[in-house]
Amino acid sequence: MNNNYLPKTTLLFALILLLNLQHLDAFATGRSKSKNKWFQRSDIKGTVTDATGLALPGVSVSVKNSKVSTSTNVNGIFTITANEGDILVFRMVGFTIKEVPVRGNAAINVTLVESTTGLDEVVVIGYGTQKKKDLTGALSSVKATDLVISAGPEVGNMLKGKVPGLTIRQNSAQPGGGLDILVRGAGSVNASNAPLFVVDGFPISDLQQPESGGRYQAGSQSILNSFNPNDIESIEVLKDASATSIYGSRAANGVILITTKRGADGKPRVEYSNNFSLQKYNNSFDVLPLNEWMQLRNQAGREQWEFDNGVAPYGTRTVAEATENPVNGLYKNLYTQNAINNVGRGTDWMKLVMRDGSTRQHNISASGGNKSTKYLISGNYYDQNGIVKNSGFDRFSIRANIDQEINKYIKLGLNLTASRIDNKNSQLGGDQFENSGIIRAAIQQGPHIQAIDENGNYPINPQLALQPNPFSLLTISDEGRIERMLLNSFVDITPVKDLVIKLKGGIDRGYTKRQSYIPTTTLNGALEGGRAFVGNSDKDDYLLEATANYTKTFAKAHRLELLGGVSQQKFINRFNSSASTGYITDAFLWNNLGAGSNPLPSTSSGPENIIASYFGRLNYNFNSKYLLTLTVRTDGASVFAKNNKWGTFPSAAIAWNVAEEPFFQSIKNVVSQFKVRFSYGQTGNATINSNAFAAYGAYPAWLSGADTRLIGVSLSRLENPDLKWETTTGSNFGLDYSLFNGKVEGSLEVYNNVISDLLDTKPLNSYQEVNSIIANVGETQSKGIELSINTRNIKTTNFQWRTLFNFSKFKTNWRERAPDWKPLVYQSENDPIRSVFSRESDGILQIGEPVPVSQPELKPGQIKIKDINGFVRDANGNPSVDENGRFLRTGAADGRIDDADTRLLGSSDPSFMAGITNIITYKNFSLNFDFNGLFGRKIADPNFTTYGISAYGVYSNGYNALRSVKDRWTPQNPSTTQPSSFWGFSPYSVGDFFLQDAWFVRLQNVSVGYNLPKKWLGRAFSAARIHVDAQNLFVISPYTGIDPETDSYTAAYPNIRSFTAGLSFTF
Amino acid sequence: MSALLLLGSCTKDLISLDYSEINPNIFPKTDADLKAMVNAAYHPLRGSYGDGIHSTSEKGVIYINDATTEILYGPYGDQLLASMHNYRSTDAAFTHFYDDYYNKISRMTNTIDLITRSSVSDELKKKAIAEVRCARGILAYTLFDLYGPIVIAPLELLQNPLKEEPLARLSNEETVAFIEADLVAASENLSAPGEAEYGRFNKALAKMVQIRLNLHEKKWAKVLALSNEIIAYNKYVLDPNYVGMWDLEGGKNSKEVIWAIPCDYAGTSENQWQLMVLPAVFAPKGGFGTIQSTWYFYDSFESTDKRRTMLIAAFTGTDGVTYNRTNPGTLINFGPIPLKINQDAARTTGLTTVDIIMYRYADVLLSKAEAISNISGPNQEAIDLVNTVRARAGLPARLLANYNSLTLFNDLILTERSHEFWCENGQYRADLIRMGKFVSRTQEVKKSTFTGPTKVLYPFSSARISEGKGKFIQNPGYN
Which of A33, A105, A526, B162 has the fewest CB atoms within 10 Å distance of its CB? Predict the structure, then answer.
């Protein structure tokens, strides 16, 4: 392959397009010249309304067999120049096409009839489009018009609860924060479970800011941040093998197709919208003020002394005995009551580092065109200040879609997205102690420490010499940048009727950068004399594709569609970083690495990979009654070893549209669609983040006497010559229905996926130098059901109400383990993939209660564990094994707590999920609100377990704690729900004690809009709208922590309410 | 259509490239490759929180082993478990030494094989193999000391890594023979003391570790012979300045050090001792204060003993409070601060440039004294050796008349060893075990109810037991 070919192609395409733009000018001039001739014809005026008499704006009106066209304005009025006898064609999505002949210059008032169902709707499938009613695979489509687009910087969050089978869980509530997106669960164990995202035909890759190499993390970012939601026309989620196998080896986790808006015939249309959001910080972390903290510290110190001295109930001694002969001196209160009464509330760290968040967004787009040239250009500016000070997200993006018809044989097109995201990073992440992020640091810093002293220094807790002052962390500069330029150009050639050849070339160029400086105002900066870091990664994905599409209808009833194609995508990554410490001034930030007296080791790496593919599809359609789809894709990937480079992924689907049968005609007005589908096929997964080849790694291994680094080399990866694709073999049964003239529609899907040859890091004998290898081991199975119901509840002239409901459920279990699997005693063959194993807790040991035989060291206030099982043991007391070398359990208590007492609690996957959206319009008002929920899940509140129970750190380290710590077990307050400060000292673990139900239903979005009456608008605008929205207004959940969705680690970025107001104008 | 053809022609060989790795087809070929492989053998013996067994943190053998003796007491965490002998098979702090490091023995076995088959000169091969075998001997001895007999995988199995084969632990004799063979071979071909670079292995070190192995096995004649061989090199003397050996460049300049691990602020090999022992309020620069010594240990020194200098029994903190034995706060309530090494106030991170001294000549002298008294009973030669070591500490000579039984003499040696080698290489635990005092000392000093005869060995993790499929037997007391 000639490496230079790809960029050259792209350039060539761009050049052709440029020429086209000139042609566009010429065309426009030509048109105005000939206008005089048409002037003699008459200008026809008219109004287009719907069946209820409501004016229809945006209806395309054209003169049949000519290039003359226009569209209706916001009042449904059009003006067009035509001759007597011409035929005007009225077109509008969702309505049946109407043709009306011109008679003289009389006004033509037209009523368009709405197509009864959404069945004529066209949806996007891989490498093409299809009528919704002719689908054979499992596909869900979401129109952007049904989403609350102002809700955030990216579309992923807006899709929550909108698509059955699509699980979206936000993993960070920070601006632009990351999402875990799963299509139909997650059956892969080690390989990625993320779906393939395809934007206008280009499979895109995830861009994240580089790691800073320092101690603070920047959190995560959504893969969709580069794409302005306002540009999106529709999102299609491909789910079963029939729908996805056209994407072969990357399709096993589903495919999400994002299609952007394109220009349409008619006069230029300019839209401008803006909105402003406010996030009011609501003090999610309720930490103690100084006076209460001092009181608590006194109590905690006393408890500690009694615990250490074995005073009853912790031991057998009395206070007098312990005082007589103390283990570590006598206890004296740290603060007098007088001091506590007069001290005030101390430093409110949370208030110092948190703030109200805000968002500004401006969006402008211009679109238009004529029969041969269509364009859409849009620009977006999005600026968010997060609720943690210093956290922010700024995005500029532009998008241009151009379609040009050269002649009846050749069409050209271009899609371009260019976006730049500037992330202002605050210090996030789940690290602890001296590496704590800013939220965690602010929770744990005692209120007795000053935020800043009179000399401008940031005092630290003297008991925690290495933990920085949280307020000082705000002086850190940490910026990330994510730039993406996605250029996708195509030529459609129609050499003969019914055959379209599409040549496509594109590049997805991602450049990410991270620059940080830890100044000497922070503790760590002071120790190192400032630390500057610069890192960047450069990702170039080249795509080259050719497809041929042949469509033919025989004998009016047999429609055949054939698609064949080849594709190649090449991934070139380059990463490098450098850093240094020891600066004479903080003023350089990261702009003068050479001025650091201590350069740190630089890093760089550069992997290159390639995927090549051949694919084909056959669609056969008999009268829209019997449908057949056959698909195959063959992929070759460079990451695999020589024996298995290529994999082939076929699928087949059949569908029967029962409602089209004659025997159904009698009830056709009740059941307009009743289609059953079945598909079976295979898809693959190749995301191993590595390759199958042996390699030696080089690293600093030893120091010389003069402290020079000596480099060592040893084996770092073993070769697996047989490594191959992970294969998902799936069957899907589907049912599409449409009842009561489209009032109720939807689908039901039942599926069963078996994922075999799982790509996993297989443990070898642990004595091996490299004791794991990427291998194909075992099988898993995902089974699930998905249901969607869309209803048009009310539909009158002034009032319309639609409801979209969906439900899904899946279960993913192991089916077959590796042949040499070495289970722990509590694991079994068919466990859920994401198993939760735990010992069983049995409440809190109370004073006077006998200590369980199995837990002789348990102290009152600690958590009891149930002794439910034991190992089968040999004569020497060693656990014995069966013929497979696996350990056995007796099934009865054995007086000790060990692995045998651990049991399977279930899966960390939710047991089902659901979403409901309501869209209501009344005259000029509109209301859109949606709920989504995850059910059947349990989590432990990480903030509670870390800061809400034990007062141990309050006394010993001067940490702060959450208010709930006051309810802990003490000898005077023998709680049955909250253990003592010393719960973590139990050697028996705490079992499932802290797990709580964490199902939730969230009111994700509410949007109220009002279209300003035309009479207010004057001549400047054709439409204007104002709206107010709220996101995350409330959550219904038994969970007692901050948020059941985003509490994935201690002090996670809190997910709070957001209110938005916005305006939009159309010119 | 041309694109179709183009694609067809470019998909024949799909090759992944990663320019940051080394392809096995080009390695190992040169002398430099050989050196790099030898360096890799040193790698697990570094001090490093993540992957160096001689880390001076709770992740390393020095800290954890000394915490099981009267030298250290940890009020919480893994160090508390060590202090009270309350470790179990679920405590990764005690099982991870085996899990993390025993396959590095296999790496060294593979390395020796690769070197043997490489095309460099025999002279280079001999030197390189000697260093790798010395590393393997040291690592295997360290694990043997912690866990008793271990698994040693034979080369045939290592060359076929995809084949599953659970292995049983070797017998005690086999393990000892394996370690001894490595160290003997190493001592033949390594550079002589004085010729080897500072920080690299030499003949004397290979013999010193053999001494430790033979002490462990109570093979006194071998201990005596090996001690005499090291003495005969005539390269080592006791450093007149005991405390100075742990100055910033102390180890490098001392004629007493047999082997030290070079450390630096920027890491690769890390020493973080100050961070571990200094309280947060210690001036001018504090640390985590994770561990203290014991007052029992402090009181066991004679008051003029120079070796007690760095046991900090009183200091004034940055909070203005003077902490001492009567006002210990929670900082020195169990014992003094076991600083041992220069506090290196200029350190910028948690790391210091003071090197980790692993073996010193004083150990040779005390080992020889112990060997003599065990072979022929306490005699003047033996007590003279002890007195040589005491004299350097500024202490008067002991009289043979007062230590004329083996028990008394052993007690003397044990005490001297604790005073001489506290917070150095973690071998005092082995001394206590050899003298039969490991359990009783812990009961006496720490009032532990968790200790017992089975605690002389650390437990293996349940992962090793599961993997062993019944062939791999846990140490007694941990099932």
Answer: A33
Amino acid making up residue A659: A
Q: Is the peptide bond before A313 cis (omega within 30 degrees of 0)?
A: yes
Helix (H) or strand (E) holding A760: strand A759-763
Residue pair B66/B426 in contact by the 8 Å Cβ criterion: yes
Contact B7 A567 (CB under 8 A): yes
Q: Are strands A903-907 and A912-922 parallel, antiparallel or unpaired?
A: unpaired
Assess contact for A87 and A63: CB atoms under 8 A.
yes
Distances (CA, A) of A1012 to A73, A145, A341, A1062, B141: 15, 19, 59, 13, 85
Write out pLDDT tens, residues A69-101: 888 887 888 888 888 888 888 887 667 778 888
CA distance A401 to A229: 15
Q: Of A254, A569, A259, which Cα lies nearest the Cα of A246?
A: A254
E-state strands within A31-76: 42-50, 60-63, 69-71
Contacts of A501 in chain B (CB under 8 A): 1
For A378, how many CA atoms within 13 A lie in the half-sphere containing its CB? 26
Ordered by where they begin, the domains of chain B are 17-189+458-463 (1.25.40.890)
Q: And the tokens for A191?
A: 């390989």
What gap in Å lies between CA A660 and CA A665, rounded to an integer? 7
From CA A365, how far away is CA A350, in angstroms rounded? 41
pTM of the model: 0.81
Measured CA distances, A782 to A161, A165, A240, A967, B188 (Å) = 20, 12, 12, 43, 62
Predicted local confidence at residue A761, as pLDDT: 86
The answer to whether residues A89 and A73 touch, using CB atoms and an 8 Å cutoff, is no
| E-state strands within A645-692 | 646-657, 671-685
* Closest chain A CA to residue B462: A824
Chosen for mutation from B5, B13, B21 (greatest number of chain A CBs closer than 10 Å) is B21
> Helix and strand tally (H, E) in chain A?
12, 50
* CB-facing half-sphere around the CA of A770: CA atoms within 13 A: 20
Instruction: Give A567's strand partners.
Output: A545, A613
Query: How many Å is the maximal CA-CA distance in chain A?
Result: 117
Q: What is the radius of gyration, based on Cα positions, of chain A?
A: 33
8 Å CB contact between A253 and A195: yes
Q: Report CA-CA distances (Å) from B182 to A437, B155, B193, B341.
A: 48, 15, 18, 32
Query: In this structure, are residues B110 and B438 in contact, taking their beta carbons and an 8 Å threshold?
Result: no
Chain B residues with CB-CB distance to A569 below 8 A:
none
* Strands (DSSP E) found in A797-901: 799-816, 835-838, 841-844, 863-865
How many residues in total does chain A contain? Answer: 1067
- Which of B20, B269, B275 is closest, CB to CB, to A703? B269
Cα separation, B268 vs A942, whole angstroms: 34
Report the distance separating Cα A385 and Cα A394, nearest Å.
9
Spatial separation of the C-alpha atoms in residues B76 and B68, rounded to whole Å = 13
- Among A117, A58, A6, smallest CA distance to A745 is for A117
pLDDT digit string, tens, across residues A158-181:
888 889 988 888 777 788 888 888
Give the Cβ contact number of residue B86 at 10 Å: 16
pLDDT digits (tens, 9 = 90+) for B438-466: 999 999 998 888 899 999 999 999 889 88
| pLDDT surpassing 60 at residue A10 | no
List the structure tokens of B81.
């478990």
- Assess B191–A contact: CB distance below 8 Å, yes or no: no
Nearest-Cα residue of chain B relative to residue A9: B3
Band of pLDDT at residue A132, cut at 50, 70 and 90: confident
Rounded-to-integer distance, Cα A713 and Cα B230, Å: 32
| Those residues with Cβ within 8 angstroms of residue B177's Cβ, 6 or more apart along the chain or in another chain | none
State residue A175's pLDDT score.
85
